[in-house]
Structure of Thiamine pyrimidine synthase:
Amino acid sequence: MLKKCPKLLSFALLLLSLTFGTIGCNTQGASNPDDSSTPAHLDKVTFNLQWLPEDAAYWVALEKGFWKEQNLDVNIIRGYGSGDTVTKIATRQAEFGIADVGTVILAQAKENAPLKAVASFKDSYQGIVMYHDGLGIKSPKDLEGKSIIGAANASNTLFFPAFAKATGIDQNTIEWKYIDPALHYGAFAQKQADAFTTMVKYIPRVEKLIGKSISFFSYRDDGKLDRYGETIIVHESILKENPELVRRFVAGFLKGLQYSIENPSEVGEIIKKYVPESDPDITVKMWESELNFKAIVGEEAYANGLGSMSNDRMTQTIKIVLDAYGINKELSPESVYTTEFLPKEPLFPPKE
């Protein structure tokens, strides 16, 4: 059942503004600050993120000139959830985007959205439900009757029904609190809800705010929902009209991803250069938490290169998503993704 969320206390706004600033608000049109001008021959494209601009790969690609090597001037803009990014790519408000592939599958199944995933970014879905101690929560089913903070367009909220179905949670007993995403962390820290659906990478941020370690359930591990996570998405018309543009963009992005995996200690200062409000120490911990969770690099990346995807695992991903929503529709893996635009010479992550 859906209940209204009480207004946040005014000091929560102050707390969050001091702790996290306005991350992402000044990244519209972000480009390398060391470049005084942009050569006329660079192709300008817009890259719509799925959320706040906190991931390493794209800032490293920008900072190290990996996109510039591909004759691209990339304008990075923040996102408002995978659902919103999918809509923007489907309506060609941006050339490239990051979105959870589960959201892409839903958009295709429900609306025949004209877009495809062209490279894997997060090999494994990292959605989690973190919760406060002392509430008698020992298994996912113990979330019944509890309140959970979520964001309407975020993939971890959209995909909660799959987790609930897999773990036997009666969704009708959940009290959802849809709060401004900028206030999520403070609201959870102030115990304005029992739980919070978010991503693995945000664990270091929340733990710093509350001053202790946090408990959580993983969609992948506790829900046995092993599927692809975030991907680079493109409108189908661009794939047909300008395939070389897509190849160049993907090549620069994957080079940034490879460098970020090889040099995690550098990502904090690089991101701070573009997002001054960010905390380099927390940023590094966030990136390392994803690497340790194996959310970024999986078996396919070691075998076939970064960005790679396969029919078998995409078929499994499609089944997990459609079954969770009770959608009875045939959707082929080829309609969801393509590896046509990956580099001919694969970029591999460092060996473990």
Confidence is low (pLDDT under 50) at residues 1-29. The beta strands are 43-48, 72-77, 96-100, 115-120, 127-131, 147-150, 175-178, 195-199, 215-218, 230-235.
